[in-house]
Amino acid sequence: MIQRRQTLFLIQLIFFGIALLFVPSLKVVSANTTVPVYLLPLSSDTFLATPGHIAAVVVNFSALLLSCIAIFLYKKRELQAKLCYVLMLLWLTITLMIELCPFVKLTESVTVVENTHFGTLIGIFGMLAAYLALHYIRKDIELLKSADRIR
């Protein structure tokens, strides 16, 4: 299970999802402070989270959960491949939400919201890891089909 390449890429997806929890995706500049915004539920007095931020948090946690589930489905390769398609879609969604959705409601105390682009970079690497996991799952499926033809 662990020695398979696709499992290593799925574990890498888990690490990318956890990294999004601790790497700031935005910086909110208010009158006197700069506050980083992570993909965790916000609790701040100076600004409020938007539904886009809450949706990005939910999508990130669902991608983490699906990555964990996909690792343990190594005997059901077809289902594992379908989950990788879903993971690629989730990581694309996370990347686009980080880049395009406003995560903070603009108020009079918030002057500037800056994107740090670290979250976008992690999202792109997440999509790449999901694609590579899918690629190696497909190679396993083809190998097993060719071995069944020989018997």
How would you summarize the topology of this molecule?
Blueprint: H1 5-22, E1 26-30, E2 34-37, H2 51-71, H3 77-100, E3 110-115, H4 118-150
Antiparallel strand pairs: 1-2, 1-3
Helix pairs in contact: 1-2, 1-4, 2-3, 3-4
Query: What is the alpha-carbon Rg in Å?
Result: 19 Å
- Average pLDDT works out at 86
Within the largest sheet, what's the order of strands? 2-1-3
The domain count comes to 1
- Portion of residues in beta strands equals 5-15%
Describe the protein's architecture and organization.
Helix 1 packs antiparallel against helix 4 (118-150). The two termini are 24 Å apart. By secondary structure, the chain is mainly α. The protein is built from four helices and three strands, in the order H-E-E-H-H-E-H. The chain has one domain (5-150). A hairpin with a 3-residue loop joins strand 1 and strand 2. Helices cover 64% and strands 10% of the residues. Strands 2-1-3 form a three-stranded antiparallel sheet, with no helix packed on it. It has helices at 5-22, 51-71, 77-100, 118-150, and strands at 26-30, 34-37, 110-115.
